[in-house]
Amino acid sequence: MEDKSAKPQIHAYSLKFFVLLVFLLFCVQLSAQRFEYEPGSASRKALKHYKAAEKAFIDRDNLKTVKYLSKATQADPRFKEAWLLMGDAYSDMNKRNLAINAYEKAISVDSVFFVPVYYLLGRHLYHSQRYHESVRALKTFLRLHKGSNELKLLVENLLRSAEFSVWATENPVAFEPVNLGTNINSDDDEYVNAVRLDGGVLYFTRKFLDDGIFGASPVLTERFFFSMNDQTGWTASSQLVTNWTVTDFMGAMTLSADARSLYFSACGWPGGAGSCDLYKSEWTGIQWDEPESLGNRVNSPQWDSQPTLSSDGNEMIFVSNRGGGLGGSDLWMSIRLPDGRWGMPVNLGANINTTGNEMAPFLHPDGKTLYFSSTGHPGLGGADLFVARRDVAGRWLTVENLGYPINTSGDEINLVVDAPGRHAFISAIREGGFGGYDIYSFELSPSIRPESVSFVRATVMDAESGLKLKAAYTLTDLDSGSTVAEGRCSLPDGSFLAALPSGRDYGLHVTHKGYLFYSDNFALANEDETDPYMLTIKLQPVSSGTSLVLNNVFFDHDKSELRKESFDELNKLTNFLNDHPLVRIELGGHTDSTGTEEHNIRLSLERAGSVKQYLINKGINPLRIKAVGYGSSVPIADNLQEEGRALNRRTELKLVD
């Protein structure tokens, strides 16, 4: 049984159904009128073959249909009804060029005999990439059509795609895809799922025939794979090994920004809510634990699949064909609740979703840029890739087609973009590939790039022994005080990873039992930073004499009142002191060398005193805290440059007897 979670079947408008509908309308029209010519001996022969063709078409025998119609049109080349039916038969056989030729023959005999033929012709021309001709045929239909508004709407939508395709092919975007090679791609289908925040690992799904065991029949199977990015390129891929009790019928995976949480879709699993449901597995540091369903708030009795997560882990966008949508499959979003559960999904609305199918969402770590695949927005045929951007109010704005030749007349269904926003990975069928869908990388044109996102990757160790520690970390938005990311050092190399989208200032806090905590900050509120922060953090055991700089304690220029951005850091210091009730501390205020030393000593003492008073207000015994003003007497950098002076302006914590 094929897992349908990774690549859903594209439920495009059924041309076969429409052809049958047109044929029935055509028959009604024939019964209501006489032929416009007097049938002679040749025409009587043609009519005989045509009647046989009608019967064969109703019996779904297209080969016989074409055979009889060929004889009919040979006997009477102006037999327009025969040319129309021949176009229908070739359409049913997916022989576009022959269908186009037959419909054009019918039009050449009588250009207004059956107006819907212009839609049928325009659709085939569109899917044959003859976009200019398609536009002409569809406009002719709209000029002549006097009937169903529903059919008119259908043609108008197709015309928008045909006109866009004319423009797109005449204004191509930069696109130089590079096949990632045999270390990743094979003669099976590969679908890109995620690239780790630091670009070090690529995750993808491979669909292949599994021979099974004991002579069982081969089964189309999907498995998760990954490849490491080292100095020589992508390494030979390996299967993502799990010890789950159920491993069949799963796909469409993604990972959280810290690579600790794996989200995916699985179909028909025990306890599931419907055909395919969303599940989560956590990395324990040794293995991926047994998956848990995301529950009936998220999962429905219908098809739910293809999740993507925001970099802070608090938003999930996924695909579902549940009720309440706008058509086929739609994009839905769920918000993580304070208790860790996911809230009721909300449809992303008509700016994103259409009456077609929206699929394969990828929310960039910037939290504002969404890439997805759609059959409903104007495109070049099949499923195209699109980008939408979110404003500060959370509204998704105008959807933009990624352009030609990224999109083609075929199906483009998967796109993932790296954190800096310059390079994308796409699953596509391209000439010169290794078979089926392969994964390619390419550089994005500036107009379709997301905002650049930096990240912090840190290894935490004992300052004395160098032993790596599975420390806990918290990344905080200093302005709002909200937690942006939290977790533990759990990557295979003992590090942790967190996204740093531009536009905010962040405070980092790292803790481990028995050690003095570590703090740092990343000022990105007014910066467009892409360079990563690669840290080696050495935690010091809790003992007298150890010290650290409180990097997230802030004051205005020449002031001693604490800024609100300091509160999160000082709350964490309060927690540390509560956890270590015997610890006593010295708070040392330091300034740069600007101004008189008398002024600097007074200012530094007042600043240390403000920190002390905050801790006292939080319930810490004042006898445990000593505030000292050092002025500019203990610099840690050169005071000649502003960068050095900024380092010298600090509040330092020291453990004392």
Helix content: 10-25%
Separation of the first and last Cα atoms: 69 Å
Shape: elongated
Tally of alpha and pi helices: 11
Biggest sheet layout: 5 strands, antiparallel
- The Cα radius of gyration reads 33 Å
Mean of pLDDT? 89
Unreliable spans are: 1-41
Oligomer: single chain
How many β-strand stretches? 32
What percent of residues are in strands?
A: 25-35%
Structural class: alpha+beta
Question: Topology of this structure?
Answer:
Blueprint lengths: L14 H17 L9 H18 L3 H14 L4 H13 L3 H14 L7 H11 L3 H14 L4 H22 L7 E2 L9 E7 L5 E10 L8 E12 L2 E2 L3 E2 L10 E6 L5 E7 L8 E7 L9 E2 L10 E6 L5 E6 L9 E6 L10 E2 L10 E6 L5 E6 L9 E6 L10 E2 L12 E4 L5 E6 L9 E6 L9 E10 L9 E6 L5 E6 L6 E7 L3 E7 L6 E6 L9 E7 L7 E3 L17 H13 L4 E7 L6 H21 L7 E5 L12 H7 L1 E7 L1
Parallel strand pairs: 22-28, 30-31
Antiparallel strand pairs: 1-21, 2-3, 3-4, 4-5, 4-6, 7-8, 8-9, 9-10, 11-12, 12-13, 13-14, 15-16, 16-17, 17-18, 19-20, 20-21, 22-25, 23-24, 23-26, 26-27, 29-32, 30-32
Walk me through this protein's architecture:
With 657 residues, the chain is an alpha+beta fold. The chain is built from eleven helices and 32 strands. Strands 2, 3, 4, 5 and 6 form a five-stranded antiparallel sheet that branches. Strands 1-21-20-19 form a four-stranded antiparallel sheet, with no helix packed on it. Strand 30 (584-590), helix 10 and strand 31 form a beta-alpha-beta unit.
